[in-house]
Predict the structure.
Amino acid sequence: MNNSLSEKVGIVGIGHAKFGKRSDTTIRELAHEAAIPALEDAGNCADKIDAVVVGVAGDEFAGQGSSGAVINDYVGMAGKPMFRVEAACATGSAAVRAGWALIKSKLASVVLVIGAETMTQVSSARAQELMARAGDTRWEYPFGVTFPSYYALMATAHMHRYGTTREQLSMVSVKNHKYGALNPYAHLQREVTLEEAMKSVMICQPLNLYDCCLISDGAAAVVMANEENARKLSDTPVWLNALGAASGEMMISERHDLTSIAASRIAAEQAYKMANITPADVDVAVVHDCFTIAEIIAYEALGFCTPGEGGKLIQEGQTYIGGKIPVNVDGGLKAKGHPLGATGVSMTVEIVRQLRGEAGSRQVGDAEVGLSHNIGETGQYCFVHIYTR
Amino acid sequence: MNNSLSEKVGIVGIGHAKFGKRSDTTIRELAHEAAIPALEDAGNCADKIDAVVVGVAGDEFAGQGSSGAVINDYVGMAGKPMFRVEAACATGSAAVRAGWALIKSKLASVVLVIGAETMTQVSSARAQELMARAGDTRWEYPFGVTFPSYYALMATAHMHRYGTTREQLSMVSVKNHKYGALNPYAHLQREVTLEEAMKSVMICQPLNLYDCCLISDGAAAVVMANEENARKLSDTPVWLNALGAASGEMMISERHDLTSIAASRIAAEQAYKMANITPADVDVAVVHDCFTIAEIIAYEALGFCTPGEGGKLIQEGQTYIGGKIPVNVDGGLKAKGHPLGATGVSMTVEIVRQLRGEAGSRQVGDAEVGLSHNIGETGQYCFVHIYTR
């Protein structure tokens, strides 16, 4: 793989809090649970950190304004340059992107990136309201649109145009639960059968309960470093070689096509070009499966299959380990959970684990190239990262 | 001035919405009011923008979750890579820092940075609660600490140790109102007499009403570009040559000294070192005067005088135009207003105006080197930028 930029950025430490309903803890403690292992993993480099980026999507969930400051202090980083990054459900990946930019710009040489969110400490109704308020509060939210309904529109359009089936949606859920059961950090660590997934309660036609990701608390952290420091701090740095990003129209009513998310395609093209690879070169991927249809649409945007063939890809089992392109073998948002600010950083953690060969029973054999894909809202944000070992 | 980094980052476009109680508008419209003039000022370069950074401090003020997406779409930037940056009251400067990093990292070549906040569309009590919640909600907020009381502690300590007087605090207010009266974008465009400022209602001993900045709506925007594009897009680029940043302990009870803010000193030292200049080289500065005492403490942190001499500096008139170092000649947070996410970007706009020689009746003669200083909370964040023409 060629990298047109001269100096590489390595990921040298990873940490991951247990995702779940963490009523035992607070956002600062969750962040700590992820950040300290990440610093230890990176050769106990706390004193070498010269910038911190915190990803938290919504201060309202934890009731703490400007929560980056609380987290930064609690993990022992008071004094260091720090800001918070937010990009809705893609907050964590935006934070990793900002960390990469700080290093490449030489404003920093070793950066701690923390993503965290506590979502279960408000009522379920309040959590749903806060998420829905990330939709347009002038023109969509007041009319009752919520995220399940946005993605239900996409599922309906995809089924209509391409013949994607209800069963194929459930197959995504079955796969992600299978791998979630093997991931000790996952919120739900149990398998579901296709029958269970098919028969669960309807949330928003055609999406049922098992098509929807979880409302979780959680945190994840990574330590990133410039090439010189990366080689010093780790024997197994994973290089973040290429980054793509794009945004999309605010209102779903402005979109020309509901069967795809344009920002995903644009961000993927940028990343592949920067990495100088094709989709076929990717050995393992984590994609944004906030709803099962989102994973199918992501397969297509990322070029793992052609548009309309996503349903077939899961039906053929091609996104399982051993298939053409294993996807979300950490359980995905669906089973691992989706604490908004943590998700993107957790994706990076999973790819690093896979490229290091440390994923245990979920290991993709001989993984050399990894990809993470993280969407905010319905594609108002998208970030694609490509990693190599 | 020497810059150790090879390629410069220029500011090539500025735009500023009218700060004030803007009940006529929404956050997206305020952002538009700033962003479109900035794009026009930068040679109508909307099509050249390849990244957007949005600074909004608190989604709760506008009731719009993930407000970057709404703003990005409304100013016509859907499609472009975008994320939001937040650093409490220093959000705008953190956004400028992120924009600089995106350019230097070569992830982008021309970046639109927008800072915006609507604070008057919730009740005054709610606005105060939201701001107070940026303090530690576990250990300080529950006991009734608000930002006037944090800064009142600093004022009391400064008066006790250095003999700073009530009158000197009011002199800061008189100066900033004098210049706010000359700034068409300022929230309060009227002068106050020293007597008025001294006699206003007590808010939190020793800080009275005229020691406190305003609760305002507003937005500001800048277009930043790499050197090649900066020279193409503008005949008068202003170079952002040096950036310093630091954070501080979360709780004021953890601070060793209440007469200064350590993060300010650290960030200033970094910036001066990177710019290879001394405080005496600065021709014009904007500093974080959320309370009058904060401006006095900033004089000292930035090296415009020695610690303890800040009160004397304003008393001698040295921070007026014509003095040793003109400070906040745009009215400062005190008279111009402090829409949280907008403030840091507005500071950059003011320095660009001054270095271009476009500040009209507020112009500092022959200004070549400018500095902006922006604090989040009570120093949990600080950003110092140094600019040259």
Q: What stands out?
A: The mean pLDDT of chain B is 96. The longest strand of chain B covers residues 238-247. Chain B touches chain A through 67 residues (CB under 8 Å).
